[in-house]
Amino acid sequence: MSKKYVIGLWLVITVLVGVLGLTAYVYNQRGLKVAALTELVQKQDARIQQYQGELMKQQELIGLTRQQSAEMIAAEKKMRLDAMNSFAQYKTEIEEQKAQAMAIAQAEMKAQEQAAAKKAAEVPQRFKFLKTTDGRIYFRVKVMEVDQEGVTIMHSDGGTKLTYAQLPQELAQKFQATSN
Questions:
Q1: Per the confidence metrics, is the pTM higher than 0.85?
Q2: d(CA 142, CA 64)
Q3: How far apart are CA 62 and CA 68, in angstroms?
């Protein structure tokens, strides 16, 4: 073997070892990069899963909050409706009580008027004089009877029956109320 051949072989072997070393170094670097990238991807996946978990919790809370809000709104609507119904019922009761009170008051007033008229009819009414609408004047007048047509009186000259039209308006109203 010649020296040139040995040097050529040695040179080829050296080149091959260098190329192999370089190739190994490149693959090693790629492997490190791949490992680093794989680790980075795994870390990112872990973060994504963590964020997804938090997001799901927040969505559940939001869902609960929406459901609770809807329930609260429904409860508030029900309370308002109940309040309106109660108010309407209360108003109706008040109106009924008011109508009853008015009926009782009117009945009492009518009873008082009748009692006053009856008392007025029972006690003979006396007047010093009575002037009728047609101009006649009666002295020492005493009302003896009140009926539907008029009043019967006794006076200084005797007695007579006067219609309500002949009496002064105030007395006519008073005695007509008594006759009813």
A1: no
A2: 93
A3: 10
- Alpha-carbon distance values, 64 to 69, 76, 79 (Å): 8, 18, 22
Specify the 3-state DSSP secondary structure of 128: strand
Secondary structure (DSSP) of 26-73: HHHHHHHHHHHHHHHHHHHHHHHHHHHHHHHHHHHHHHHHHHHHHHHH
Point out the residues of the chain with pLDDT beneath 70. 1-12, 15-37, 40, 61-64, 117-124, 178-180
168 phi and psi angles, rounded to 5 deg: -60, 150
Q: What is the DSSP letter of 132?
A: -
d(CA 41, CA 156): 135
Instruction: Report how far residue 172's alpha carbon sits from residue 150's, in angstroms, rounded to the nearest whole number.
Output: 8
Contact call for residues 120 and 178 (beta carbons, < 8 A)? yes
Q: What is the pLDDT of residues 102-153, one digit of tens each?
A: 888 898 888 888 777 666 655 568 889 999 999 999 999 998 888 888 989 9
